[in-house]
Fold each of these.
Amino acid sequence: RAASVSFAIDLSLATEYTVASYATGCPEWALRGIAFAESSERDDAIGDGGQSIGRFQLREVYHESRAAKWGEYDPRDCVEAAIIAGFIIMDNLAQLGDIDLAIAAFRQGVEGVRKNGATEWYVERVKEAGN
């Protein structure tokens, strides 16, 4: 019979980016950088005439399809929004094969990157803010 083992994990230093990184595989620096680039990490941010919400400026027009794919979320909740953003980035990465392109696609969409190339200033801003 195996002995009982108890594991204790101290999550007191974990951020929303740490949690989302563990949940999705997305690098913490990319999540932190996108949150800063999109809203200066403001959970109450609203843009695009009310269509983009929270620190990741998640567009409401895609809410239903994202919720069906990854689960219901509140774009104003920093952990839930970070997890959805992580899923978006990793989905972009799977389609585009490059983290810079995946970051650009967070802003432009995968088809926008394929058609127009990556918006370099955005990728650089995310990288600078994330590190």
Amino acid sequence: MVAAQMKKASMKILIADNCALMREGLKLILRRAFTAIEFGEASECRQAVEIALQHKWNLVILDFAIPGRGGLEVIKDLKARQPRLPVLVLGRHAQHQFASRVLRAGAAGYLTTATTRAEFVKSVERIVAGGRYVSADLAEQWASELGQAPAGPTLHER
């Protein structure tokens, strides 16, 4: 029900990626999934922060490797100035430690660029609705590590 309403509601999404082809591809996927959608674009860190602060966005989609100070710094800047602005990070690394850093910095979600179109749309729906999102693969990595015994004595035990 929420997803159906969201597909019809007006959304504003800022796509911050230095690759014009990637920005166009993301816009094409999102236009097919949502009927009323507007986009902003940025190709480097400073521009991404400036544009994000000039308008009211429902979501910022951020390439972690965007040129400039780096994706973590962009997330921290945005969260310091607009704490409620959700950020979905697209990265090339599937390691859960990398995703953990992004989420701790304030991002609402993390996906790798190998993500399917359906999962990308699902993540946008969930984050715009106020949730958080990581891929099932990353969640499984975290869960399996939580179930393992520590390699040595814990800090508390020491």
Amino acid sequence: MIVAIVMAGGKGERLKADCEKPLFPLKDKFLIDYVLNNLNQSNLIDKIVIATSPNTSKTKEYLIKNYDAGSLNFSNDVNRLDNASKFYYLDTPGKGYVEDLSFILDTFNKDSQNHVLLFINSDLPLVNTKIINHVLEVYESSDKPALSVYVPTEIFEENGIDYSFEYNGKVPSGLNILLSQNIIQEEEELIIRCTELAFNVNTIGTAISITKFL
């Protein structure tokens, strides 16, 4: 089963907004709506799970009300991934990205070690269905259990976008794939020269710049 995991539990402090980051308005939608719509249009994704936390309680309320999202609980037959629902939320501790990632992998591992988990940050509204499907297709043709997507630094520099970390001329995109096992997994590196992957909404300035693409 291919499950998209939307990381939506962070504090979003760099954005300096008076709302939770996933509920930051961009034109006529919230930030998280763009991500969920792009994922939902993919015919390769079976389920969509939004990882919320105490930092994003209003986001969870929004998901329940507007996406009929159920609480994911593998110990409860009512809230399992094999039910008809497409959207779920998963409460995470919200202590940090790495900690939440570990919590998610442990949770899914209780159900199966063979779920394919596509992780995407909730601040990537321009990552469209075509990009998502391409990444999944590359993963399916790979013989490695994990895949990480990178963007060359020149894409950021050409568009005047700041980045906080780079490795050998490439920047992590916030889009990657893991099997549902909380172990170190050998990964395939996929480098994509794509402006859409470079625009993550971390600041008000980026949010203003990104609206011309929506």
Amino acid sequence: MFVLGIDPGLSRCGYACLEVSPGARQPRAVALGVLTTPPSSPTPVRLAELHGELVRLFDELTPHVVAVEHVFFQVNRRTAMSVAQASGLALAVAAGRACEVVQYTPNQVKETVAGYGAASKKQIQALVQARLGLARPPRPFDAADAAALALCHLAFAPLRRRLAAQQASAAPAGA
């Protein structure tokens, strides 16, 4: 199974694809990186470029699950808008590929990966390096954040499966 974590952004959109094999002790990093668009280009052009890059990424990696950061608060409105636009593209491409799509807040990710919600970018970077057995910390931070999203999903996946099975068995017949 491939889990693709996406840390959305219009200037820098981090991604990390982790492979989970049956019986493996830890996931394996298949791809880590950042998709970029030039800030000097108009927003519609940048969105089109990011969309094309996301489509190519999905074609190459064929993820089963896509974990996208759920941004519900930003101090800077302009940043919030561009992050929301990039997030929307990632969600749409994933849904169009019939991937399971999940969203986690930054605090959920930090609490899951680091054990507390106030972890710094450097701490997340170091913990992702250790959890994935990487030779060096993933750079830039956007790639590390995307890997942390995928790791967060892997931690939540068993609970999500149990809840879905429980809901399915509790559903009335014929519903």
